[in-house]
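Supplementary Text 2. Reproducibility record for the structural model of the 336-residue chain.

All settings were left at their defaults, and a single model was retained for analysis rather than an ensemble. We include the record here because the model underlies the residue-level annotations in Supplementary Table 4.
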Amino acid sequence: MLFFMNNRFSIGRVFAATFIAVLAFVLLTGQTTQKKSAKKSSKAPTAAARGKAVQDSLVAFRADSIQKVLLARASADSIQRKHTADSLMQWRADSLKKLQLRKMTNEAFGVGERLVFDVNYLNITAGEAVMAIPSTDSIAGRRCFRVEFTVNSTPFFSSVYKVEDRYLTFIDGEAIAPWKFEQHIREGSYRRDFIAEFDQVRHVAKTTGGQYEIPEYVHDIMSAFYYARLLDYSKMKVGEGPTLFNFYKDTSHELKVKFLGRQELEVEAGTFNTIVVEPLVREGGLFKSEGRIVIWLSDDERKIPVRVNTKVIIGSIDTELREYSGLIGPLRSRIK
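Retained model, structure tokens:
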């Protein structure tokens, strides 16, 4: 289409140039004729002269008319093309809004929630972690929670090993599945930037490393955690738990959220009745803990993380809730 439009404009310019040349020729010829005829007596124009003048006028009129028609067509084509593109974009957005994606009941989190944690290693406060939902955004025509997670080392620890990590995910407000995930790691001299866009309709993930097929309602490492906050643990027995899929780098991993029981726990933010769970990744047909991660969630509708313990090569890292705000309801699990 662009090729033909460009050629239409070229033809128009040729007709315009021809018209201008003819007009200039007529004027110059007319001026020369007037100078010569000034010395002679005026004579009536012959039939041949009148015919030529009419023919020249018709040529000029035709060229001008064709130019205007072609320009009008080109403009109409441009408007039509833009209208078609706009219509397709609107159709795609409207179609995604009407998709029969699952609708999860969410009484756990919402916009405005902000959780602040102390990150402790070898009984030293090494950093601060913040999980927040500052707003909602529209992704693929769907209302999504914008979830941010940052981890920063303290000034003292930064002198030894500086950490500035940032994670961002956009979670569908109804399906509680991600549409986009970002990871920006800054740890010592190590740098990593990873972005994944999840097409929850065609089941495709586009990342900084390529394009991959994904299971239905696949999760990133952050959205999986928020999904786990919606689960009903009241009827689970110890050792039971649902299985979901988690995508990272270029692979979808099967992830089980194993229920370990209940426990009363005291942290700086207060004392809580908690639910204890452990994420397990399937390897070789068996679910295994990657470094043994245990999570304590408040035993109520909110299920906010109260503590996370991660085993590492030397010792463990404890992340404990220091303060919270912007919850969508009360914390009935808090004892004091």
